[in-house]
């Protein structure tokens, strides 16, 4: 939803298009199997006047989804469609990449989705919110609840089911996970009577880039491309300027370790910390703190000699071997990178591989599915429903 939100929020506010009372359709990928071009949460919207924004498959099945969307707009009834490669004709409606995707197409208007504006406002303001929608065929199809850290709005038709979905949704908000979860009709575990698509609309993950050098400008640019909220920090004001880092969301003049100490509440398992200072007076106190955070990726730039000296200094500072094992240094994959831009791609590739627990080997040398996935269990939650 995030990619199409600016467009559809305007449609919702203005009742875009005279046909069907301004209703539009939102098509969302809810499940993928084997190789698939886009992941759960990818969205395409169609207005009553036939305007299209977004994509669910990169072009493979958009034509059919468009027709389904027009029917949903006309009837106001949601639909779920499954698309996959055709054994008889790979150019029939389906995914020529060999994967399978499931798409939820639902009507959006003030009657069918009264909470849409509040969801959109939460996303744009950076507040975490989850939308949990029943995607099993039947009279519950399309029912939804909106889950925020302190409240729940909506109904799924059964209090037990709501409680189970809320429990999962809170855990999925914490991890930034979007997926379908299966339940019994009253929320029982290990049942498959009701499938609920839980879309976690969390703020973008954070990338902190330390060191106002030309490599940092390239890393900031790639970080933005990957969807991170990027902050560049350095103690040297003459180099740490908005003009030098136009892609960054924030440019901060401060000692790196002091700045990081003040934003620890923003560091979680999705966070990438890129230490590009390769100066011990900056990076040793910074890494001493960073290696004790929950950051998912911690990388430090420097030569082999710099790396060995850095490890010795960190050990002297009391950093344990287990903590040092979290450090990617020298940062990046071996791509033969030379320029700042190539180095930034090398670092980004390692961040992606680390995040997905991937091998970082050439796909031509591997077997099995190309697009991986992560499954998260339930976590306890205590929030008010109503």
TrEMBL record:
Residues 21-84, 123-184 form the XdhC- CoxI domain. Pfam families: XdhC_C, XdhC_CoxI. Residues 207-351 form the XdhC Rossmann domain. This is Xanthine dehydrogenase accessory factor.
């Amino acid at each position: 939803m995030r990619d199409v939100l600016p467009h559809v929020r305007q449609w919702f506010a203005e009742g875009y298009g005279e046909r069907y009372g301004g209703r539009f359709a939102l098509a969302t990928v809810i499940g993928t199997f084997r190789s698939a071009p886009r992941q759960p949460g990818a969205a395409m919207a169609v207005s009553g006047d036939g305007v299209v924004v977004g994509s669910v498959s990169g072009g493979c099945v958009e034509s059919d989804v468009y027709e389904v969307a027009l029917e949903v707009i006309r009837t106001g009834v949601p639909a779920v469609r499954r698309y996959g490669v055709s054994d008889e004709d790979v150019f029939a409606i389906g995914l020529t990449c060999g994967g399978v995707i499931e798409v939820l197409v639902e009507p959006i208007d003030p009657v069918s989705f009264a909470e849409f504006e509040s969801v959109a406002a939460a996303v744009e303001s950076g507040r975490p919110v989850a939308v949990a929608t029943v995607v099993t065929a039947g009279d519950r199809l399309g029912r939804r609840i909106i889950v925020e850290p302190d409240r729940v709005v909506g109904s799924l038709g059964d209090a037990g089911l709501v409680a189970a979905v809320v429990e999962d949704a809170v855990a999925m908000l914490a991890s930034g996970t979007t997926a379908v979860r299966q339940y019994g009709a009253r929320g029982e575990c290990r049942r498959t009577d009701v499938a609920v698509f839980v879309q976690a609309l969390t703020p973008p993950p954070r990338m902190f880039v330390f060191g106002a050098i030309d490599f940092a400008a390239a890393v900031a640019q790639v970080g933005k491309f990957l969807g991170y909220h990027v902050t560049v920090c350095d103690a040297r004001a003459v180099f740490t300027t908005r003009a030098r880092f136009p892609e960054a969301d924030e440019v901060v003049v401060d000692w790196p370790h002091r700045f990081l100490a003040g934003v620890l509440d923003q560091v979680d398992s999705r966070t990438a910390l890129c230490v590009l200072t390769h100066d011990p007076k900056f990076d040793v106190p910074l890494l001493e703190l960073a290696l004790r955070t929950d950051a998912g990726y911690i990388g430090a730039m420097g030569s082999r000699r710099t790396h060995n000296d850095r490890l010795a200094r960190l050990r002297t500072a009391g950093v344990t071997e287990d903590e040092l094992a979290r450090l990617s240094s020298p940062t990046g994959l071996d791509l033969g990178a030379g320029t700042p831009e190539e180095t930034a791609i090398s670092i980004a590739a390692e961040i992606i591989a680390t995040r997905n627990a991937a091998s970082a080997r050439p796909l031509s040398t591997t077997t099995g599915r190309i697009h991986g996935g992560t499954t998260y269990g339930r976590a306890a939650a205590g929030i008010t429903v109503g």
